[in-house]
């Protein structure tokens, strides 16, 4: 469909029109119309994104930044235009956008670059990244494993200490504890913009201010914010940020690392090989400026182009409108689950001053999350089950797994109501009511 920009709120009628753009959402599961409530794990793809990736292979496919023939030139132009499109989406410059395979790779790129700097690589320019015994890396208890394990490994490689900011009992980052943990020894703070389990939009500005007061770098995991709300990374004053295309209507296999230009050009590279060098000798080599210094080997060309098309789609609908619609769906989901006997929701309740996205992770008393997920699936409802790659936050609240329902722009209030009706029947079905 053709989307006309508007400031009117999204409603059920528009969400249904948008849903028609997504071929997979027209299928049935177990004889029931599919209700897809797992966009927090991966989003579905509109026809325009599918078509542009197919068209690239049918009409343009060639290696970028290599060769002087027509196809190579066209492919390179599309590839770099996609980089510029992503940069505009997050308020950055194009040389501040590095292509990765996913957000996890981006976080590892930062961690290993710092590790290389700590070994003396990168010369004087990389001094700001060097850490060692006595230095501290700080993260939080609610992080996805991708924003925890790389920092554990960096601490082990460098001798630095990893410290963790805890959560309040209602599932918010404890800012008093953050002020106590982030101190003069802190060299880097890594935090999620939005929790993939608790659904809360975290107080990034306060955490950045604490980090800045001690000269620490800030790394932002924007995987659950970039698809759902307007994002201006320079305005947030973070040093690095990552997000993945597959959660925001684009294909798998494409991620984005944002870094302030002067930092990217000072950070030693992680992956090395072709395409990221200027001169190669038998003993040593010289590297290109960022972002190419971090893009070794054959690139994710079709995926990057498709990501740019996905961003066009999101911008045409309007991220502010998407954010408002998901907040409405999320409130309906949270309040509905709160009324179901025997259901416990992780994370803070919607309230003034508490920002949430359209997801909720919950426990049904007496029924394992996997059984809840299967019960929903039998009724055509796709939801996530497990620890969602966030074991520490589940442990903090005394559970091993939850069921998570997460909405997106193509969901309706009827989808939420169907899920609530199904959850209300779980305990009776398993005879634990």
Structure characterization notes:
InterPro entries: Aminotrans_V_dom (IPR000192), Aminotrans_V_PyrdxlP_BS (IPR020578), Cys_dSase_SufS (IPR010970), PyrdxlP-dep_Trfase (IPR015424), PyrdxlP-dep_Trfase_major (IPR015421), PyrdxlP-dep_Trfase_small (IPR015422). It catalyses: (sulfur carrier)-H + L-cysteine = (sulfur carrier)-SH + L-alanine. The chain is built from 15 helices and 17 strands. By secondary structure, the chain is an alpha/beta fold. A seven-stranded mixed β-sheet has the order 4-10-9-8-7-5-6, with helices on both faces. The model has no long low-confidence stretch (mean pLDDT 96). It is globular. The chain folds into two domains: 146 residues, Alpha-Beta Complex (Aspartate Aminotransferase, domain 1); 262 residues, 3-Layer(aba) Sandwich (Aspartate Aminotransferase, domain 2), CATH 3.40.640. Helix 2 packs antiparallel against helix 10.
Task: Note the main attributes of this structure.
four-stranded antiparallel beta sheet; transferase; 15 helices; Cysteine desulfurase; 2 domains; Aspartate Aminotransferase, domain 2; 433 residues; seven-stranded mixed beta sheet; single chain; globular; Aspartate Aminotransferase, domain 1; alpha/beta
């Amino acid at each position: 469909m053709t989307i006309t920009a508007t400031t009117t709120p999204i409603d059920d009628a528009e969400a249904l029109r948008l849903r028609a753009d997504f071929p997979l959402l027209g299928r049935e599961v177990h004889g029931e119309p599919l209700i897809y409530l797992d966009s927090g794990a991966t989003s579905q793809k509109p026809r325009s994104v599918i078509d542009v990736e197919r068209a690239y292979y049918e009409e343009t496919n060639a290696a970028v930044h290599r060769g002087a023939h027509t196809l190579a030139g066209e492919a390179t132009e599309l590839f770099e235009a996609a980089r510029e499109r992503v940069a505009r989406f997050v308020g950055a410059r194009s040389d501040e956008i590095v292509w990765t395979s996913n957000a996890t790779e981006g976080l590892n790129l930062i961690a290993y670059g710092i590790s290389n700097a700590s070994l003396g690589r990168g010369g004087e320019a990389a001094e700001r990244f060097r850490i060692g015994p006595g230095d501290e890396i700080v993260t939080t208890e609610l992080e996805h494993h991708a924003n925890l394990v790389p920092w554990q490994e960096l601490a082990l490689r460098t001798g630095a200490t990893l410290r963790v900011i805890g959560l309040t009992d209602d599932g918010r980052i404890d800012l008093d504890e953050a002020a106590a943990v982030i101190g003069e020894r802190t060299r880097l703070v890594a935090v999620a913009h939005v929790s993939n389990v608790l659904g809360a939009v975290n107080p990034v500005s306060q955490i950045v201010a604490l980090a800045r007061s001690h000269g620490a770098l800030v790394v932002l995991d924007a995987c659950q914010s970039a698809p759902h709300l307007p994002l201006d990374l320079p305005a947030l004053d973070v040093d690095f940020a990552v997000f993945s295309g597959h959660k925001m209507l684009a294909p798998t296999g494409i991620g984005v690392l944002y870094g302030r230009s002067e930092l990217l050009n000072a950070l030693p590279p992680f992956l090395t090989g072709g395409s990221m060098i200027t001169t190669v000798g038998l003993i040593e080599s010289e590297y290109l400026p960022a972002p190419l210094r971090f893009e070794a080997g054959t690139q994710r060309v079709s995926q990057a182009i498709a990501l740019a098309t996905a961003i066009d789609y999101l911008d045409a609908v309007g991220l502010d409108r998407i954010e408002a619609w998901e907040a409405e769906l999320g409130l309906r989901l949270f309040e509905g689950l709160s009324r179901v006997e025997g259901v416990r929701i992780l994370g803070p309740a919607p309230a003034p001053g508490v920002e949430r996205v359209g997801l909720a992770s919950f426990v049904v008393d007496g029924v394992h999350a996997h059984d809840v997920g299967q019960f929903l699936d039998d009724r055509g409802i796709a939801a996530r089950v497990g620890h969602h790659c966030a074991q520490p936050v589940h442990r903090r609240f005394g559970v091993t797994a939850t069921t998570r329902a997460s909405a997106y722009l193509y969901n309706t209030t009827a989808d939420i109501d169907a899920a609530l009706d199904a959850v209300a029947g779980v305990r009776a079905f398993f005879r634990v009511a």
